[in-house]
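Quick question: what would this complex look like in 3D?
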Amino acid sequence: MVFFENMGLLALTPGMVFMWVIGFVLIYLAITRQYEPLLLLPIGFGIIITNLPLSFLMEPGEGLIWRFYHYGIEWEIIPPLIFLGLGALTDFSALLSQPRLIFLGAAAQVGVYVTFFIAYAMGFSLEEAATIGIIGGADGPTTIYLAARLAPQLLGACAVAAYSYMALVPIIMPPIMKLLTTDTERKIRMKKGRKVTAREKVFFPLIAAMVIILLVPASAPLIAMFMMGNLFRESKVVERLNDTAQNSLMNIVTIFLGVSIGATMNAEVFLRKEVIFIFFLGLFAFMISTASGILLAKFMNLFTSNKINPLVGAAGVSAVPMAARVVQKVGAAADKRNYLLMFAMGPNIAGVIGTVIAAGIFISILK
Amino acid sequence: MQAALEIFINGISGVFIGLGLLYVAIKLNKLLAGREPDKKEQ
Amino acid sequence: MATEVLVPLAGNIWVVLVNVGDEVEEDDELLVIEALKMENPVYAPCDGTVSEIRVKKGDVVEDDDVLMLIEES
């Protein structure tokens, strides 16, 4: 009977069933442990439905989810729109009041490059290694943007690795933070920086966009959107746009993003040994990024009497604001009256910009 | 290997230079816009 | 002599844990400030009695605002 011939059930492979399990696990983690649910829930769902054969959801030219993926991700529209929302949600005060913290955000990108190098040495192509390395930047949209540009075949794996490790930052970072700092260093109280004026906050996105895009034009799509979003926020005269950018637009784009990414992860593409390497390398990248931020802070302390608490360096890992919260917790554990949270936001935000610059540099060299 | 090394060095320097310039820009921004106009004669 | 309890980090008052007239000891939790979805307790700087509370739940506070006064014992 024709009906039975068209049943997807007959075309099922064990690989697909295994992918279902992965999808279910991500959804479970999202719901019960709240691991990055905004992304991991739709991603998990996308994984399950793409591994239901004969649906043609990802059929090039026709599939529903293929269209989301093609026009949203391949056309590089969605990640920049997420950055628009992120810019509208970001308060740059912490960075503006103590600008030297920007270098801790730069240091954290070392994890990206070290991982890039090792991935290349392990046999990945330059483009693939770059995409795997950028996981260390701990920035989901940048990872997706770079993967879509340089190594779309790794998009799913890298995105899931990036978002999973971002959720696991409270577990990954503290051991490294404690290993690399002494108890005395962890207790360092930092002096508050200068108050930031409203005018500074309005000028900043304009100046930053111009400086960065003049230097690394390939980072323009992400930086321009990020800074425009921030300008919406700080100008205080476009609250409707600000609100949309922060809320409705972010939500809409996140929906399309999540399900598209998940849907790229069909069994054929995902169940290969490279993916296991990617997960290990991604974790390694996070760890090196954490360490480099801390180490630069310690180094900077050799040259200044206004000491930086090295824990704050770990927040260069741009999982905003999770990394900053982890710094606060570890700092408060050493001295409960030490409130490092706002200081940690400086490197945290700088790290986002740093990761975008890193991605821009990869694109300019490899494209 | 050669290409990877080049990218490694270009990359890290690029990030530091980029953020370094941004640091300078922030300092300049502070000079230009950093004073609270709470004196009403402004 | 009244000691000021100052805001250690900007945020919203999440909950005030003491009342005017309460006896507190150094390091007691006086109130909790929420910032970036994290709860941050503010601790008593000294022993004494709470003489004045200048904030309530939901208030937005800035760095170095005065939260409450404690009469040192």
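Answer marked as accepted. Chain A has 21 helices and no strands.
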